[in-house]
Protein: DUF1353 domain-containing protein
Amino acid sequence: MAPFRYQSAILGRVIEVEAGFLTDYASVPRLPVLYLLFGDTSHKAAVIHDWLYHHHEVCDEATANRVLREASEADGIPAWRRLGIYLGVKIGGTPSWRADGAA
Structure:
């Protein structure tokens, strides 16, 4: 992956994702309907979210989830899809937050 930057109004700072950062993008369950609606979208926002999950010193989990929603909007993702993605990480993201922070 090439490096990139994202200016977050929520964080009040620029996030710099380094070259080679490993991400799983949006880890949407492979249930057909869920994946059809929410999978394979908002890649840049998902990378930013993964980066924040690896860098607990930048923000807490709830803020990382809000930045995902913010970055998805910047990527032009429709409001209904942003809400679904946000609710997915809010409901199911805590195990990943804990695991990534322990790494």
Q: What stands out?
A: The CA atoms of residues 42 and 76 lie 8 Å apart.
